[in-house]
Each structure stands twice: as C-alpha cells, then as structure tokens.
Amino acid sequence: MPGVIPLNNKKISRIVQTQVGIIGAGPAGLLLSHVLHLHGIESVVLEKHSKDYVESRVRAGVLEQASVTLLSEVGLGERLQREGMQHHGFEIRFGNRSHRINFDELTDGKGITVYGQQEVVKDIIAARLTAGGQISFEVDKVSIHDQLSEEPFIEYLLAGENHKLNCDFIIGCDGFHGVSRKTIPEDVISSFDQSYPFAWLGVLVQAAPSSEELIYSNSATGFALHSMRSRTVTRNYIQCPLDDVIEDWSNDRIWQELHTRLETVPDWALTEGEILEKSITPMRSFVCETMRHGRLFLAGDAAHIVPPTGAKGMNLAISDVRFLGQALSAWYQNGSDDLLNSYSANCLRRVWRGERFSWYMTSLLHKFPDDNQFQRRLQQAELYYLSDSKAASVALAENYVGFNF
Ligand code: FAS
Ligand code: PHB
Questions:
Q1: Paired strand residues for 86
Q2: List of domains in the chain
Q3: What is the pTM of this model?
Q4: Which tens digit of pLDDT belongs to each residue from 261-317?
Q5: Residues in contact with ligand 2 (CB, 6 Å cut-off)
Q6: Do 205 and 279 touch, CB atoms closer than 8 A?
Q7: Which of 56, 117, 139, 223 has most ligand 1 atoms within 8 Å of its beta carbon, as the pocket-test mutant?
Q8: How many CB atoms lie within 10 A of CB 206?
Q9: Is the CB of 180 under 6 A from ligand 1?
C-alpha cells in the first residue's frame, strides 16, 4: 500500500524530517522553536493538548527583567510591552505588619513585569504560525527512540495515523509529567526532590486589583497572595491542605479565607468579583541532573520544578531555552558541540539558585502544619529580620527580580 511503511511491526503512515524535534508546546518548547527559527534552524513541535487548551491554561504571572529583555530581543515583546504591567516592588504582610520590597531602592534599577503565561504562549504560537512554523497539536503516544545515536527519532500518533519524526536532536519540553525525562536511564540521572505539606488554590477573578503591586501574606491561618493579570482581572492564591480538591472550596469559603489572610493591615480591603477559573496546584521542588542524554536534551519543567512562591518556574524555562538556542546554533553553524556539552552545567547553576530562592520564599510565607513552636518563632524572626534589615531585603529583592543572563 503506497505511503505505508512497516516499522517495528507498526505501520508508519507518514515520515517527517526536521532538524530539531521538540516535545511540548509550553513556554519552553514554543520559545525554543521560535529562537531556532531565528537562527535558520527547522523544528517541529509536538503537543498533546489542543491549541485552545494550551492558550487558555492559567499558570505563571511574573516575568523577570531578563526574561522580558530576551522576549523583546527575539521579536516577542510588542504586546508584552504594551499590556504587561511593570512593577517596582511588592508587599509582604505578616502579623499586622506590612513590609514593602522596593526594587528601585534595593536593586540596580531592575523590576518585574506581570503578564500571564498564557499571553506569552499565545504570542509565541502566533509568531510561529505566521512564520510557517510546524506545531502539531493533539498528538498522542509520543515515544523517543535512538537518542544515543546520531539519528534519533520520535514516533507519535496524529489524527489516528502513526508518524515518525526523523531529526538531529530531540528536546523534551514536556513538563514534569511528560515522557522525555523518563526515557533517561535511572543510573544516568540524579534527581533531587522535595514535597511540601500543602498546595495552592488559585482563582482568576473578574475584578480590579485591590493594590498596585503584589501582596504576599503570611497570616495566622496560612499563606495568601494577591496578584493580577490586567486592570480588570486579578489572580489570587491561598495555601490549602495537600489533599484538598476543588469541590472542598465553595466561592464563599474562598473569599472568606482571602479576606481573613490578606486584610491584616488597616484601611485595606480585597475587592471581590466573579471567579472565572479555580485550580489546585501541589507544591514541589525537583531537579533532574543531567539535562542531557545523547541527542536528547531537557528544558523547563521537564528538568526542574519549583514551588510558585518565588515566581521562577517560567523564568527558569526561558533561561534554559536561551542556553539551548545558543548551543544548537553553534552546532549547526560551525559544528561546535562545546555549548551542547556544557548545557546541563550552565542551566543547573541558575536552576539551583532559583530552587533555593523558591524554597526560601515558600519556607518564609507558609504555615507548616508540623512545625513546632521553635520553628514558628524562627519563621517570625526571619520576617522581622527582613523587615528591619536592608541587607536582608536586598538579598530577597535581587533574587526576585532575577539576574542578568
Ligand atoms: P509546561 O508544563 O508549561 O509545558 C509542557 C507542555 O508539554 C504542555 O503543553 C503539555 O501539554 C505538553 N506535554 C506533556 N506531555 C506531553 C507528551 N507526552 N506529548 C506531547 N506533549 C506533552 N510558575 C510560576 O512562575 N507561577 C505560577 O503561578 C505557576 N503556576 C503553575 C500552575 C500549574 C498548575 C503548573 C503545573 C505550573 C505552574 N507554574 C507556575 C510553573 C509553570 O509556569 C512552569 O514553570 C512553566 O509552565 C514551564 O514551562 P514548560 O517547561 O514549557 O512546561
Ligand atoms: C501569579 O500572578 O500567578 C503569581 C505571581 C507571583 C507568584 C506566583 C504566581 O509568586
């Protein structure tokens, strides 16, 4: 039968050829495909969900200055600069105190931009499709083959037909639960894992922000965060028990906890509104060392995850992509594999700095159910030290706004 080629007892209906096969159309996979295109390198992105699903998934909200600069430099900054909200600080509330982390005073003029991850994803997908980029949505049964050879390939199901993607490199950008990391043998990988005894319940709300800046609150009944997406949409989070499900949280209960945990200073009230989306995210720190196995490379959450308290997840994914884009460009343009060989080490230095900061912010701001009184006093002492010491605030601020690449 023409076009049907038997392979490993499976009928491959279609063979696709590209230079770089990318699994996952989140920020990491999409940005890598875009950056490679700018270097004249072809790629194919394989995504298990639909385009609508990927573009509507509510996740991160904060971009470090270095991420904004990179996105702008690669031609993805127009809507980001127009609609993104530049912030020059944020507030930490504890007890009945409030402490503002003033970026202008504490950093060398850096800030952050509040711009939803789904907006970043929409911008990159639009750019890729305009440039004729190949993104296959709703693929299934993705499997990775021959990553230790010079001719690796990916098999997958698309529209009910078996496909084979021949490529030079496979990049796993398929997140923590993806397939890529799992294809690296256990004896090659060292992984580092820390779970936390709570989760975050997040709500997207049709309401004007109740503050110009983000408010993180360590309250007697637990953590809460007031963030935003625009002048009319806010994003609020509350710490909740690890085994809670959405059904445990009525809108009334959510608002009651948000008011209790955030309204801890005088003359400030949280504006309510229609809840547009609710989700519960477990908290975890994870790092996979190595981020490479032969011609397979990992980037973003496929290699590392952080609790969102430090707003580092998406920014670390962008940082990995910057390193990998440089490395692949050097290989294709002058045959050098130096940057490919140092990719893992280069990424992991930045990853571990993000892991430490995310762990620090999580430890500082959450109520740990099993903490004894001594540990609770230590946390209070850290908050007072932060509030009283410029050096302590400088350390927090420089990590929050992020470091230059
Ligand atoms: P992503 O997980 O974004 O993308 C991976 C992509 O691969 C997905 O589209 C997935 O569908 C696809 N995929 C998976 N398996 C596949 C397969 N077998 N075949 C094909 N495709 C496959 N970070 C913050 O900074 N702040 C936050 O508030 C925040 N909230 C979050 C909430 C949730 C529920 C989650 C899961 C993460 C959150 N994060 C947050 C972290 C998040 O923003 C990540 O850091 C960011 O999405 C990383 O981007 P990627 O590495 O591209 O991974
Ligand atoms: C968000 O706006 O989604 C957000 C902001 C800061 C965080 C986590 C999430 O630390």
A1: 113
A2: 5-61+117-190+289-357 (3.50.50.60), 87-114+197-283+371-401 (3.30.9.10)
A3: 0.96
A4: 999 999 999 999 999 999 999 999 999 999 999 999 999 999 999 999 999 999 999
A5: 60-62, 214, 227, 235, 308-309, 311
A6: no
A7: 117
A8: 12
A9: no
**Can you list the pairs that 228-233 forms with residues at least 24 positions away whose Cβ atoms lie under 8 Å?**
228/61, 228/85, 228/114, 229/61, 229/114, 229/116, 229/204, 230/83, 230/85, 232/206, 232/207, 232/208, 233/204, 233/205, 233/206, 233/207, 233/276
In angstroms, the Cα distances linking 7 to 150, 180, 320 are 19, 21, 34
For the CA of 117, the nearest atom of ligand 2:
3
Amino acid at 53: Y
**Cα(11) to centroid(ligand 2), Å:** 46
Catalytic residues: 87, 216, 308, 312, 400
Residue nearest to atom 3 of ligand 2 (CA): 61
* Alpha carbons 178 and 73: distance in angstroms, whole number: 29
End-to-end CA distance of the chain: 53
Which residue's alpha carbon is nearest to atom 1 within ligand 2?
A: 61
- Reading the block at residue 237, the tokens are 């989070």
- State the closest ligand 2 atom to the C-alpha of 235, by its place in the atom list counted from 1: 2
